[in-house]
Here is the input.
Amino acid sequence: MTAPARPSWGDAQDLIDVLDVRPDGAGGFTSLVRGHDDQRSVVEGSQLLGQAIVAAGRSAPDRRVVSASMVFVRAGDAAQPVHLALDELSARRTMTAFAVDVDQAGRRLAHGTLLLDVTAPDVIRHAAEAPAVAGPEASETFDMGVVGREIRIVDGAYTGDPGAPLGPPVLDAWVRFASVPDDPPLHAGLLAQLTGHLSIAAALRPHPGVGQDQAHRTLSTAVNAISLSFHAAVRVDRWLLYRHLSTAAADGMTHSECRVHDEEGALLASFTTDCMVRAFASGTVGDERTSL
Here is the structure.
């Protein structure tokens, strides 16, 4: 069964243009705006993380981002550009570190740090194995409204329906872009952009009567922090398997430990998310267009 189509957000080139931030002087970068989204005009935190990765890659083009972390403190308006200010903390022979502040109209949206490396020959090597799950061709297509980006959910486990069958706090998703320029920071940024999409849904799966369709309506949900490590260069125009495992849900928060493998099983990236899952106050109904 194929999940119902969502309203079109745009195509993959629109997403690439949004992530491909432009330098605006003094170590700063500014995003383009695709246009107003009547469905939900809120900047996704994982988009800001992806933009920071691209900005860092542009600032140190001889190095690869190996670690990127960000906390999200305020919702931004997707109809307005964001500004990223990079502060070089260290630039040594092999490593470069940046702090990054993301603001919009003078209001801070997020703060993060990025570590870049020239990489080196192995002294040791090992990696966690990929989970034994169905491949992309045997998984269910899920439309998130971006033409040119395929998403396939293993076992059709992501429905958003509060009445869906219960399952473990795990969601596996195959993702592939039809075409992306041969530009390593863009590939890394596009991988990061999806890290905030499915971990809350994984956390909701074992619990009856709740589903992601309630987000911003009766449930107040948000991604508050993401920490992402790259273990290798990535290509998002090849199938990638995102595994989302929610390891804890308590006190209005959920923590997930996630991995990204290629189709051959190699571990390319690992990330964690800390997210809010809370009920709105009695009698309050959220606004899905603007809620954090």
In short: Residues 1 and 140 are 7 Å apart (CA to CA). The first helix runs from residue 12 to 19.
